[in-house]
Amino acid sequence: MVCLRGTDVTAPFAPVPAVGYNEPTLQWEDFRLMPPNIMNAIGVALQVILALAGAFLFALWISLVIWAFRDIRARTRDVFAQILATLLVLLFTPFLGAGLILYLLLRPKETLAEAYERALEEEALLRDIEQRPVCPNCQRPIQPDWQVCPYCGERLKSPCPHCGKLLALDWAFCPYCGHELFPQPGRAEETLAVGAATLGDRA
Known about the structure:
The protein is rod-shaped. The chain has helices at residues 28-32, 36-73, 79-92, 98-106, 112-131, 187-202, and strands at residues 157-159, 166-168. Among the domains are: 40-115, no CATH class; 133-183, no CATH class. A hairpin with a 6-residue loop joins β1 (157-159) and β2. By secondary structure, the chain is mainly α. The longest helix is centred in the first third of the chain and has 38 residues, at 36-73. The chain is built from 6 helices and 2 strands, in the order αααααββα.
């Protein structure tokens, strides 16, 4: 048997404890040990990204100011309100969009064009109501071709005895056939005299 000096060969071999494997982690010292060209490239990339983000935010801010100015001009003619709304968006929008939120809450609800269209619609509706015929007795709406009011029985129109067209009660002549509705005394004799004189002139 071969004996090694200082080794008890009779003792059973004890298992060697396994040493745990730790994955390497990057520390700040590792970045300091990186080549200078890689560090410069990372710094330039970060600067470009920050510059693009800043330019985008600045362009967005200016665009919101221009939009607010155009929007308030379309909603009011008051110059003071236009300046105040523009300054509100210009000064307070960088603070988490507070200026834009306040403007959206305080601006007029409708534009000048919408208000004009609504006024035209209301005017047309009132004109239609005013021009709609009503019964002279009960003031209820009626149709132009009704002879009597179906609500109170008031007589509205009467047919022409010559052509049958419906005529207003205060008309003296039928506009469709020229028939005289209420002949006055002496008008018939005058008409006959005029006709005889005309025939005499022709003879």
